[in-house]
Structures are given as structure tokens and as C-alpha cells.
């Protein structure tokens, strides 16, 4: 892994990856004292009592007692791999990011995950998959913390605790929602219809990938690229698997989850061990950075919307190859800490209100999950760029900072570090007065035109799978009003979809104008007029 940036000089010191390998000739305590016996505690006589002075007994048990750390509050179940990213150079005209220049190779660590299950849950459940990539670039770490679905459930991060509470196991029985009562999830998504698009992708075959190696990945939000001359461009990031996109069918997934709950993590590790290295092409949709931050009427700050590839083709900019399994799951896969705010010069964030909340949330949760503010020093999280951050002390500080003046300017430590243009640009836009409530632009209220686009793009077999998925999932909802409300949501996607699911549930097809929480926007009404009747 990377060089240790925490040498007294602050300069990389070469590979100092720490290994506490089980390979030495002698068994020792944590502090290196050789041990004669690790199987018998020290007793006063052969039948005891056991003596408190047995340091090894206490050290061994104490350490074991503290082995667990909190699992991630979401995306707890995951698998990861090391690899390399090689840039084609095709993005060099839109970004000054050094790792995107032609033929530059950058080490990466990628973690795939489910969202809702706990650490010990099954792999092949119907869920969104995380696709998080840490690029250890020469200019610092760039984390692309994406999913295998290009849109998200909500438009404002303030609802994130709510959608997750609704989706996690029911608080009374802690039974995972798949195979059990689904009332809270369907209650939420039928009341907050901005979730319709993401939910539809979940109900499609994309919700049960065959393999992590066969999933697309998406940055979801719109990002801003900055070129050498300062020109800015808006982009959407895409990962396209070389192995193609493949899914399980529902019955396969049921069997797989029973027979091999570790199916996806085993598949990833086995493929890499066998030398069949998984590959993805990295691509961007390039969109002009206009003041409105819209493209063909699509609000680029709305994470429930895609930009269809027909309107803005994905342009390949590099190749990701995963070629090494982690040596230790806890040290690497569990302790890796991704953050949307880890960007490098040439890549920046935007004002997407979901992204704003994420920029706060990841660091905040990691302080609690990884025990203090110094987890950037863990080997898997270390940058490969020199660090000179003026951050000091704190829990689990492992660096020995020299110097007495961690502030600038100073006249004690040989001057002051330069401040240079770097990873964060401020593009000047007019900002309106503070407001809370339903003040989002009108296009944020269009919750149905893109789900409808997705539905119509499906083949008849794929549509049949979607109908079966909604029917199965809603059959697990006990509260009749929730089922009926969700049928009204389906009616707004497509009357045939609604009718088929209603038939499957044995419920009447809703009549008249669907009653849902959000009033239709003018754009939505237009779409409604063109609904064909199918079937
Ligand atoms: C974790 C993606 C929205 C909070 C993750 C992970 C991924 C991800 C891939 C797992 C990272 C890993 O493997 O370690 C996304 C995407 C989102 C989204 C694509 C929307 C576009 C949000 C929002 C919040 C949030 C809105 C909160 C406001 C978290 C937290 C974790 C997490 C707290 C756990 C991080 C950790 O413990 O290290 N997310 N997320 N996410 N996400 Fe998100």
C-alpha cells in the first residue's frame, strides 16, 4: 500500500506497510515479550484459582473483547479488491486531474456492497449495490462513492435517515425486509414519490446482479471538472463492466442466498485469484456548465434523474482492472473510509442538495465508526501524496509530528507552507435567500417521466420480471392502504404495469386520477397526455 506520509519530515519514506504477520519464529505478547505457553492460564496450584497477575491471559482476552467495531450504518455488507486504473488521456481537455492524463497508472481500492443488510447478511438480495473507488493519485485521494443504480431515492439528504429507517429491518422484530413485512419501505416510497425512479430500478433485474464483476457503476450526482485554463464542465461518471451487465433471476437469487450467502464476495475473490481480473471502462457524459445547471430540460442537480446516453454519449476515459485480493478483510475492506469530499485538483462537487448532506455525513460517521479523527492514517486510507495538514493529536494518533508551529504564517518552523490552487474551486453563482420547504425547482417535482422512460425501454421479459417483483414485494405488505397507494404510483408510471400488479395482488385497478402525495408538475402533465395503453 502506499508510502507512509507521516514521517517526521512529512515526506514519503518508501513502503512502510505495517504487517503484524503470523510468521515469526516465536510467539510474543503485543509488546514483543516471548511467551512460553498460550494455552494454560496461570493458577495457584493445578486446580486454581486463576491468578490475576497473568498478564498474557488478561492481554489476550482484553484484546479479543474489543475486536468489534460498529458496522457501517449503511452498506455494512461488502467485499473489496485492489487494482489499477490506467487513463486514456481522453479527459485531459476537460480536467487538469493528473491521474486522468494519458497512460498514467493509479493504484485503486474498490469496495462493493449491499445497502440495507447487516455485515452478516446474504449477498444476492434485491437491493442497490455500492460501488466505491479510492484512487490513490499523486495529487491526493479521489473517492468516487457511487452505486450500481444511476439515480437515488431522495433529492435532499435531510430525508436520508428517513428512507434508511424505512428500509432497514423493522425495529420490533429486526427481521430483514426481504421475505418479511415490507410495510415501512413501501409506506415511504409511496408517500415520497421522488423515490419512484430508484425503486423501479430496484424492482428490475438490476436489483439482483449476477456478480459484482457484471454491474455498471454510477457517480449518480453531477460533478464539475476544471480544466488547466480554468474552464469548467459538468459531468456524470460511469463504470461499464467489460464482462457486460448480467443479473440473476429471482428464483436463482433465492437459491443462491440459501446455498451460498457469500456468493458475490466469493465470486470476486475467486475470479481475481484465478487471474480473471475484472475490468471496467471509466466514462463521462460531458455537459456544458451553464448557470442553470440543466441539460435538455433535465435538472443536473436532481439525483433522481439520469441524462439519457442518447442525448449525451458516455465517453471512455480509462480502464480499471482489479488484480489483487485484500490480505486482511478487517484492515482493508472494513476499515476503508470513502468520502465524497475527497477530490483532487480538476474534479469538484456541485450544489446537488443530496451531495451536500453526503459531504457532511461520511466524515461524521467515520469518526464514530473508526474511533476518532485519525483514520486517514490507517494503511488502507493513507494518501500517496505528501501530507502537510496542520491537523494534530486526537484518538489513535500514530504520526509523530515534529515542529512547534502548526499554523501559518509562522516564524518558527522555517516559514510557512505555501497555499496553492488545489482541489476545491468556487464557481461564482448567484445564491438566493435562505428557504426551507417545498422550494425546489419545478423539475424536481417531476417524479414520473423518467421512470416511465425506463419502463418503456425494457423488453417484454424484463417488464414481466418487474411486474413479478412489485407483485411479490407488495404481497408482503400487510397494510392495505399502502398497497393501494403504491398501485396509484404504478399507474403514474404505466397503466399496464399497474393493472398487472393489481391483478397479481387480487386488488381492483385504481380508477380515475391517481391520488398521490405530490401534485403533478406541468412537465408531468404533458407526459401523462402521451401515455399509451398497453396489453
Ligand atoms: C456509505 C453510496 C447517499 C450516508 C456508502 C457507501 C456507498 C454509498 C457506495 C459504501 C462505502 C463503502 O464501501 O465503504 C451512496 C450514494 C448515494 C448515497 C451513491 C447517493 C447518490 C447518501 C446520503 C447519506 C449517506 C444522502 C447521508 C446523508 C452514508 C453513510 C455511509 C455510506 C453514513 C457509511 C460510511 C462509512 O461508515 O464509512 N454510501 N450514498 N449516503 N453512506 Fe452513502
TrEMBL record:
<feature type="binding site">
    <location>
        <position position="111"/>
    </location>
    <ligand>
        <name>heme</name>
    </ligand>
</feature>
<feature type="region of interest" description="Disordered">
    <location>
        <begin position="1"/>
        <end position="49"/>
    </location>
</feature>
<feature type="compositionally biased region" description="Polar residues">
    <location>
        <begin position="8"/>
        <end position="20"/>
    </location>
</feature>
<comment type="function">
    <text>Decomposes hydrogen peroxide into water and oxygen; serves to protect cells from the toxic effects of hydrogen peroxide.</text>
</comment>
<dbReference type="GO" id="GO:0006979">
    <property type="term" value="P:response to oxidative stress"/>
</dbReference>
<feature type="active site">
    <location>
        <position position="75"/>
    </location>
</feature>
<keyword id="KW-0408">Iron</keyword>
<feature type="binding site">
    <location>
        <position position="358"/>
    </location>
    <ligand>
        <name>heme</name>
    </ligand>
</feature>
<feature type="binding site">
    <location>
        <position position="72"/>
    </location>
    <ligand>
        <name>heme</name>
    </ligand>
</feature>
<keyword id="KW-0479">Metal-binding</keyword>
<feature type="domain" description="Catalase core">
    <location>
        <begin position="28"/>
        <end position="416"/>
    </location>
</feature>
<keyword id="KW-0349">Heme</keyword>
<dbReference type="GO" id="GO:0004096">
    <property type="term" value="F:catalase activity"/>
</dbReference>
<feature type="binding site" description="axial binding residue">
    <location>
        <position position="362"/>
    </location>
    <ligand>
        <name>heme</name>
    </ligand>
</feature>
<dbReference type="GO" id="GO:0020037">
    <property type="term" value="F:heme binding"/>
</dbReference>
<keyword id="KW-0376">Hydrogen peroxide</keyword>
<keyword id="KW-0560">Oxidoreductase</keyword>
<dbReference type="GO" id="GO:0046872">
    <property type="term" value="F:metal ion binding"/>
</dbReference>
<comment type="similarity">
    <text>Belongs to the catalase family. HPII subfamily.</text>
</comment>
<feature type="binding site">
    <location>
        <position position="369"/>
    </location>
    <ligand>
        <name>heme</name>
    </ligand>
</feature>
<feature type="cross-link" description="3'-histidyl-3-tyrosine (His-Tyr)">
    <location>
        <begin position="339"/>
        <end position="362"/>
    </location>
</feature>
<feature type="active site">
    <location>
        <position position="147"/>
    </location>
</feature>
<feature type="binding site">
    <location>
        <position position="160"/>
    </location>
    <ligand>
        <name>heme</name>
    </ligand>
</feature>
<keyword id="KW-0575">Peroxidase</keyword>
<dbReference type="GO" id="GO:0005829">
    <property type="term" value="C:cytosol"/>
</dbReference>
<dbReference type="GO" id="GO:0042744">
    <property type="term" value="P:hydrogen peroxide catabolic process"/>
</dbReference>
<protein>
    <recommendedName>
        <fullName>Catalase</fullName>
        <ecNumber>1.11.1.6</ecNumber>
    </recommendedName>
</protein>
Amino acid at each position: 500500500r502506499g508510502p507512509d506520509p507521516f514521517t517526521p519530515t512529512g515526506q514519503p519514506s518508501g513502503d512502510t506497510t505495517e504487517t503484524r504477520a503470523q510468521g515469526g519464529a516465536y510467539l510474543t505478547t503485543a509488546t514483543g515479550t516471548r511467551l512460553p505457553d498460550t494455552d494454560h492460564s496461570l493458577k495457584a496450584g493445578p486446580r486454581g484459582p486463576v491468578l490475576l497477575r497473568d498478564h498474557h491471559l488478561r492481554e489476550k482476552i482484553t484484546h479479543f473483547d474489543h475486536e468489534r467495531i460498529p458496522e457501517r450504518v449503511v452498506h455494512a455488507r461488502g467485499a473489496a479488491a485492489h487494482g489499477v486504473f490506467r487513463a486514456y488521456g481522453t479527459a485531459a481537455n476537460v480536467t487538469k486531474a493528473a491521474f486522468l492524463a494519458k497512460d498514467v497508472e493509479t493504484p485503486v481500492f474498490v469496495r462493493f456492497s449491499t445497502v440495507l443488510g447487516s455485515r452478516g447478511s446474504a449477498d444476492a438480495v434485491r437491493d442497490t449495490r455500492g460501488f466505491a473507488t479510492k484512487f490513490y493519485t499523486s495529487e491526493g485521494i479521489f473517492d468516487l462513492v457511487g452505486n450500481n443504480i444511476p439515480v437515488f431515492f431522495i433529492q435532499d439528504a435531510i430525508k436520508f435517515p428517513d428512507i434508511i429507517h424505512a428500509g432497514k429491518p423493522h425495529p420490533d422484530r429486526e427481521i430483514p425486509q426481504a421475505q418479511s413485512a415490507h410495510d415501512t419501505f413501501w409506506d415511504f416510497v409511496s408517500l415520497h414519490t421522488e423515490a419512484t425512479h430508484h425503486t423501479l430500478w430496484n424492482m428490475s433485474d438490476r436489483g439482483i446482479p449476477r456478480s459484482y464483476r457484471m454491474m455498471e457503476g454510477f457517480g449518480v450526482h453531477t460533478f464539475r471538472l476544471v480544466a488547466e485554463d480554468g474552464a469548467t464542465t459538468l459531468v456524470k461518471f460511469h463504470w461499464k463492466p467489460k464482462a457486460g451487465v448480467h443479473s440473476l433471476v429471482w428464483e436463482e437469487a433465492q437459491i443462491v442466498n440459501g446455498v451460498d450467502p457469500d456468493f458475490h464476495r466469493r465470486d470476486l475473490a475467486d475470479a481475481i485469484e484465478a487471474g480473471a481480473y475484472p475490468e471496467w471502462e471509466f466514462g463521462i457524459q460531458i455537459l456544458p456548465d451553464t448557470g442553470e445547471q440543466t441539460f435538455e430540460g433535465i435538472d443536473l442537480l436532481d439525483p433522481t434523474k439520469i441524462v439519457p446516453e442518447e442525448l449525451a454519449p458516455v465517453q471512455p476515459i480509462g480502464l480499471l482492472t482489479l488484480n489483487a485480493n485484500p490480505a486482511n478483510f478487517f484492515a482493508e475492506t472494513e476499515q476503508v473510509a470513502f468520502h465524497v469530499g475527497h477530490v483532487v485538483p480538476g474534479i469538484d462537487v456541485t450544489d446537488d442538495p443530496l451531495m451536500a448532506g453526503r459531504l457532511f455525513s461520511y466524515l461524521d460517521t467515520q469518526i464514530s465508526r473508526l474511533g476518532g479523527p485519525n483514520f486517514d492514517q490507517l494503511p488502507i486510507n493513507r494518501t500517496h501524496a505528501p501530507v502537510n495538514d496542520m491537523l494534530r493529536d486526537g484518538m489513535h494518533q500514530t504520526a509523530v509530528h515534529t515542529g512547534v508551529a502548526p499554523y501559518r504564517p509562522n516564524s518558527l518552523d522555517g516559514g510557512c507552507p505555501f497555499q496553492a490552487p488545489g482541489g476545491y474551486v468556487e464557481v461564482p453563482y448567484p445564491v438566493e435567500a435562505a428557504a426551507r420547504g417545498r422550494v425546489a425547482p419545478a423539475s424536481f417535482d417531476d417524479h414520473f417521466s423518467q421512470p416511465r422512460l425506463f419502463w418503456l425501454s425494457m423488453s417484454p421479459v424484463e417488464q414481466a420480471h418487474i411486474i413479478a417483483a412489485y407483485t411479490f414485494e407488495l404481497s408482503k405488505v400487510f397494510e392495505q392502504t399502502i398497497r393501494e397507494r403504491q398501485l396509484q404510483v404504478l399507474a403514474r408510471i404505466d397503466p399496464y404495469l399497474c393493472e398487472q400488479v393489481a391483478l397479481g395482488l387480487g386488488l381492483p385497478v385504481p380508477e380515475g386520477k391517481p391520488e398521490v402525495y405530490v401534485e403533478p408538475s406541468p412537465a408531468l402533465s404533458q407526459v401523462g397526455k402521451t401515455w399509451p395503453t398497453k396489453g
